[in-house]
Specification:
The chain has 4 helices and 2 strands. The chain has 137 residues and is mainly alpha-helical. It has a two-stranded antiparallel ribbon. The longest helix is centred in the middle third of the chain and has 21 residues.
């Protein structure tokens, strides 16, 4: 669960392991440790082993926020890749990323040929299917 108090932004997340009783997990240090281990295994590339104490603390805070949101809202909050991130790391995923401006817009090419009914660039090997691009795109 991501919550930025100053901007009022709330990113809700989906469950990592199906229907989990997060309130119960917070009451059991062993259950919290096991859920954090599962989270760490799934999102292994997000942080290094030296950061595990910090990430577990952030994970627990997000889990508490998720339990509270689940009591207040009609939607369900849970665990995803944002659950162990700092507010600054989560903020990197917000907004539109425009890294350069185009000075000259080329004139569109208008063809007189009939338009194709379908055009799948994946079949031509030009692009790949949808992926999790993390902070890139």
């Amino acid at each position: 669960v991501v919550s930025t108090q100053s901007t009022g932004i709330v990113l809700s997340v989906l469950c990592l392991a199906g229907a989990v009783d997060y309130a119960g997990v917070l009451q059991s240090p062993l259950a919290l440790k096991n859920l954090f281990i599962e989270y760490s295994a799934k999102y292994v590339n997000l942080f290094c082993a030296a950061e595990q104490p910090l990430r577990c603390w952030l994970f627990r805070i997000d889990l508490k926020r998720g339990v509270q949101l689940n009591k207040e809202k009609t939607w369900t909050s849970g665990v995803n890749m944002f659950s162990g991130m700092t507010a600054a790391e989560k903020h990197q995923y917000l907004g539109l990323n425009i890294t350069s401006e185009v000075d000259v817009v080329p004139e569109p090419h208008h063809s007189t040929a009939p338009a194709a009914t379908t055009h799948d660039r994946r079949k031509k090997g030009k692009v790949t299917g949808v992926k999790n691009q993390a902070g890139c795109g």
